[in-house]
Design goal:
Mean pLDDT: 89
Number of strands: 12
Strand order of the largest sheet: 2-1-3-4-5-6
Structural class: alpha/beta
Low-confidence stretches: none
Order of helices and strands: EHEHHHHEHEEHEHEHEHEHEHEHEHH
Length: about 375
């Protein structure tokens, strides 16, 4: 099977899901290409699209929440969205690419590429089967507008949200959100810490604002440092992502504190989740799923308004996380509760999250393209 996986660099989650699908397809003997379609347009359009989103999420999360709410209201109207109109300009570029590079199936982990494809479909351009893979625990605005052949949803329990938006039930495939194999690996805490060069005699809290380093990370580190004073064997690992300004600020404020370990972007997130004793993170769909698959006690903080509030609510309702939200002053008290909640939290994570989602998605693609994989 020749598969194209379209993503968009508006945060790391969409790319992470796309990479997980590519990895699973490759392991099953297929040929897969992962692409940000805006790269084809040149003039750094892919970076401009991604950076615009990231800057809003980092600097003005409330504005992002307003935009999300407007999108949710706009989808009630019987007309196409502005996102559909904006992506019309990509039709010819994408058509030329697909003529030169034919595929059996196209996956998309973001609605922006989905809008490009539906523009092509509405103009009568022949397309292979199209599969949208949701990366949040909600039907985000305009998902219904991209008119894919199939929609991979996070869980059957959330299918009604997609159905009420007008997506036919027979198009829904509740396989889950795909994560890379490294998060599923059977590795002990001690083995993970040894590979990371960390002392297993210490306890470790892992703090992240996602790939963009968003949320109240600076304030959270200050609160946790006071908590660490009462926990001499506890260390705080902070993942700053690509937020260089955050890294500079934290170095200035905490760079001399041996209890605080500052990390920028990393390709070892699975090891950190396997080795640390708790994960404090904004409720991104991918990072939350990776945490659940890793089996790490999870605390949700500083959601970007919109779909992350929905992610946090779903995880809290299923007992898979402890939700603090923007009330980070409650962190120290919440941390005291976490050890007691951890065993049931891990059990719920196994119950509600499909660790094999990436492989199951690939098997489904094989079934609709009649191209069986070589792996079992």
């Amino acid at each position: 099977m020749d598969a194209l996986i379209l993503s968009c660099s508006t945060g790391g989650g969409h790319n992470a899901a796309a990479a997980a699908i590519k990895e699973a397809l490759t392991l099953r003997g297929h040929h897969a290409v992962m692409l940000d379609p805006y790269e084809l347009a040149g003039k750094n359009l892919d970076r401009k699209v991604g950076n615009t989103y990231i800057k809003i999420a980092q600097k003005t999360p409330r504005l992002f929440g307003v935009i999300y709410k407007l999108g949710d209201e706009y989808r009630r109207l019987p007309i196409r969205s502005p996102v559909y109109a904006v992506n019309k300009g990509m039709l010819g570029i994408m058509q030329a690419y697909l003529q030169e590079h034919p595929f059996d199936v196209i996956f998309t982990t973001h609605i922006f590429p989905g809008e490009i494809l539906v523009n092509m479909k509405n103009k009568g351009v022949p397309l292979p089967k199209r599969i949208f893979v949701a990366t949040d625990y909600v039907c985000v605005p305009f998902t219904e507008e991209i008119e894919c052949d199939y929609y991979v949803t996070p869980t059957k329990a959330l299918n009604p949200d997609f159905i009420r938006r007008g997506i036919p039930e027979e198009k829904l495939v509740p396989a889950g959100i795909p994560v890379r194999q490294s998060f599923c690996a059977d590795i002990s805490r001690e083995e993970a810490l040894e590979e990371l060069g960390l002392d297993p005699q210490n306890r470790y809290l892992l703090l992240s604002g996602g790939s963009m380093g968003a949320g109240l990370i600076g304030k959270t580190v200050g609160l946790l440092c006071r908590h660490l004073q009462e926990q001499p064997s506890c260390r705080l690992i902070v993942i700053c992502g690509n937020n260089e300004k955050l890294m500079e600020q934290l170095r200035a404020d905490h760079g001399m504190d041996p209890r605080v370990i500052l990390i920028g972007t990393t390709d070892r997130m699975a090891l950190y989740m396997k080795g640390c004793d708790a994960f404090l993170s904004k409720p991104g769909g991918l990072s939350s799923t990776e945490a659940a698959v890793s089996g790490i006690p999870l605390m949700h903080i500083s959601p970007i308004p919109g779909c992350e509030n929905k992610n946090m609510a779903f995880f809290q309702q299923c007992g898979m996380s402890l939700a603090v939200g923007s009330r980070i002053e409650e962190l120290p008290a919440a941390l005291e509760k976490l050890p007691e909640l951890a065993p049931q939290m891990r059990a719920n994570q196994k119950k509600y999250i499909n660790a094999a989602a990436a492989e199951d998605i690939c098997k489904f693609a094989e079934s609709i393209t009649q191209t069986p994989g070589s792996a079992t």
